[in-house]
Description:
This protein has helices spanning about 1-35, 50-55, 55-65, 75-80, 95-105, 125-130, 145-155, 160-165, 185-195, 210-220, 230-245, 250-255, 290-300, 305-310, 335-350, and strands at about 40-45, 65-75, 90, 110-125, 135-140, 140-145, 250, 270-275, 280-285, 315. The chain is an alpha/beta fold and about 350 residues long.
Amino acid sequence: MRLRLLAVVMAVLLILVVVWQVTRRGESVAAAQCATAQTEVNGIVGSEKEAYLEDPRVADVFRCAGLTLRIDGDGSRDMVSRVASGYDFAFPSSTPTAEKIMQTRGVAESYKPFSSVMGVATWKPTVDVLRSAGVVERVKDREVVSIRKLIEMSGRGTTWKKINAGSPNGNVVMLRTTDPADSNSAIMFLSIASAVLNDDRPVSGADTLPELLPDLCRLVLDQGTKPNTSGVLFEEYLTGGAERIPMALVYESQFLDTVSGQKVPAGGDHVLLFPNPTVYAWHTLVPLTPAGSDVGKLLRDDETLKDIAAEYGFRPQGRTLADRPNPPVVVEPPDYQVLELLLGHLAEQRKAAQCPK
């Protein structure tokens, strides 16, 4: 009996040694497959991607590929003027801004590893009020925020207090956005609103802008001082509450993010609805050096990076995610030239402190 027990113990020990050796060999092979030399790669990125790119797991994937990321966060608009400052890549939050950078720097390629839909971050009590006012409506079996109704309501000067007798908020009912002079998310809002005002068609030329400008100017200027990045606006939404920030235009990814420090707490009254219509913001990496191109390829192709991007709320290219349904109505943003003209007009109105009649 004692010999049999000894034999069993020896057999178990032998198995454990074999497993340990195989595991160690596997770890050695994995380590051997990673690069030893590192290249520092500097990028300028939209603020909504900073937490993802600074995730230690993302850093490990890049380090294994021989790349050490160094990033500066900024509003997507400012990237156009800053890309000449020694960066290896620019990573704005929309195709129009990326196309302008490509044109400015003579770059022919770009990478679109993931996207995010523009959404309306709001609150359950606010949704009830907006539903009663006809602003929240059902389209294709999904509740959405009607941008047309919001434009009409703001044009009449309708306040939150008027549609909700218990509210102390005397501000006009409108979406809170970032500043379009600095931030891509506000440009996405202008893309949405201009399409609604243009008979539900994207604006394709400058000749249409004078007719749309009074409404668009009011939707921007009447908000007063606006944050210059989507990260700051989202923080205002999370901390300000339903009275201070009843509705904010955010990236869907910010709301669905489950891992960064700036995320929606569980069990609250926070609600995300699609605006009707909405736009897809394709986060587009523009490589400015060969190392920047390596970053773009890795973000586009690596399955681990796609998994982590999904945790941060993004929609990785080529994947269908159950918690990210398609919005009912989508429009395309105008091209960069049209947006530049529109932003130029808005800058003039800002200086004059009034909108055209």
